[in-house]
Amino acid sequence: MTFHSSTHRDEEAKEVVPIPTEPASKGGLFGTGLSEWFALPIGITAAIPAIHFNWYVVNEETQLLAVFVAFSVACYTQGGDAIFNALDGKAKLMLKEHNEAEDKVIAALETKRDFLKTNQNMVQDFEAINAMRVDGYESLNAAGAVKPLHDFKSQMERILNMIVQEEASSKEKTKVALMEEATVTVKQQFTSSKALKKAALSAAIAQISGDVTVTSEDPVRGEFVQFFKDKGAALASADDGSEAAIQRDAIVAKINAVAKSEGMFFEFGADGVPKVSVNQAA
Fold first, then answer.
1. CA distance linking residue 185 with residue 178, whole number of Å
2. Closest CA to 211 of 200, 203, 219
3. Beta strand pairing status for 274-276 and 266-268?
4. Which of 166, 176, 199, 274 is least surrounded by CB atoms within 10 angstroms?
5. Which backbone phi and psi does 22 adopt, to 5 degrees?
6. Cα separation of 8 and 26, whole Å?
7. pTM to 2 decimal places
8. pLDDT tens-digit series, residues 90-124
């Protein structure tokens, strides 16, 4: 139920208080029981000497009073209800607008009250938020202490995988190059040597006829084996470490390029020894 500061217009039930009654009069003229019409001759009889002896002077004021009384009586009897209804309707409209404005004010105050009730635990909420923030910072600090180690481990694993891949690629390239060189060399030997051609033909015929024994030797295989023995001896005698240094420099350059592009914590020097990156040290 809403409260309004204005006067409540609805009629409310009131306790009926008995009013002491006076003895009933006889009615009529001045309570004498005579008809009120006797007041007319009495008034005329009293008015004649009053006017004659100038006890009451009939002038313009009396005429104006008579006109005003007649006008008031006519207005009351003819237009009283219309005037009352107009004034009463305007009053009701004003009261309705006033009540609607009060309802809006009351609704706004109730909304504000609900908002204030909702924010009663604001201090506890902010304390909980601050506690969560402190826990979050502690977790971030703990993670910050572990993250560099994790990143360093990941970077080392990536570099080691790169080294393994580069070594495997270098070995594969060397193997392919040796096989191509061995093929060309053995082919030239068989092309230029009639004895090798004859031995290869005999071995092929024996293979086809099934006369191959355990002690039989394949001249092609033997030439390949001999080539690799000679090649290994030549490389061992002529190895001064320059080729390995060139390969190492190429791998180091590639690793440093990847480390720089990915912002790693370290890089490799010209001697192949890792050191802290300049960007990380700064």
1. 10
2. 203
3. antiparallel
4. 176
5. -90, 160
6. 42
7. 0.39
8. 899 999 999 999 999 999 999 988 888 887 777 78
